Description:
The chain is an alpha/beta fold and 179 residues long. The protein folds into two domains: 3-127 and 162-178, Rossmann fold (3-Layer(aba) Sandwich), CATH 3.40.50.360; 130-161, no CATH class. Helices cover 42% and strands 23% of the residues. It has helices at 14-28, 66-74, 76-81, 100-115, 136-149, 164-178, and strands at 3-8, 32-37, 52-60, 63-64, 84-90, 121-126, 128-130, 158-160. The strands form two sheets. Strands 1, 2, 3, 4, 5 and 6 form a six-stranded mixed beta sheet that branches. Strands 7-8 form a two-stranded antiparallel ribbon. Helix 1 (14-28) packs across helix 6 (164-178). The longest helix has 16 residues, at 100-115. Residues 10-15, 58-62, 89-92, 127-129, 134, 138, 142 line the site of flavin mononucleotide.
Amino acid sequence: MATVRILYATTYGHTAKVAQHLAQAIAAQGHRASVYDVATNPPSADLVAADAIILGSPVYQNRHLRPIHAFARQHRKLLNRTPSAFFSVSGVAASTRPAAPAMARKVVARFCVATGWYPSQVAIIAGAIPYTRYPPLTRLLIRWFMARQGGSTDTRSDDVYTDWAAVTAFADAVVRELF
Ligand SMILES: Cc1cc2nc3c(=O)[nH]c(=O)nc-3n(C[C@H](O)[C@H](O)[C@H](O)COP(=O)(O)O)c2cc1C
């Protein structure tokens, strides 16, 4: 049985749901998975004991969140010598535009260079757009952004673009790397 740690940061909570889904998929394969919000519940030194480490962050203004960035940079040596994976949750990953996948990959590539951590596996996951929870200006901004991405511009609804089967497949791929 392997031990997998999943660490994430989030602003509106969707990345936490993706982290929990990964943990359930890993547990369903008979392994131990624990989930940490790095901003509020950072793991202690027992992190070292993990067989695999997964980090995840949403993208805001073309960057991953600071707590995950800081964690990856601080622990890059450990991460680079442990089977490790990164999932990036974004609006652009939900886009139908042909240029979108390259844009999403570029944000991840910049993150890897800036932190010095090169995960063995990366997943780019379409996130959620909870329009009704945004302050008015943010709602307008994201409506404009989603119009450009070919997504919904109906600000009365909260939209989830995540392909949960793809999240499960990513969890399975991380576990496969260990055996
Ligand atoms: C203010 C704001 C800025 C955003 N900037 C980007 C961005 O630059 N690129 C992108 O692909 N998605 C962007 N998004 C979409 C988020 O990545 C998406 O909503 C994600 O699911 C948020 O995850 P969370 O609920 O874990 O915070 C932005 C969303 C908001 C509200």
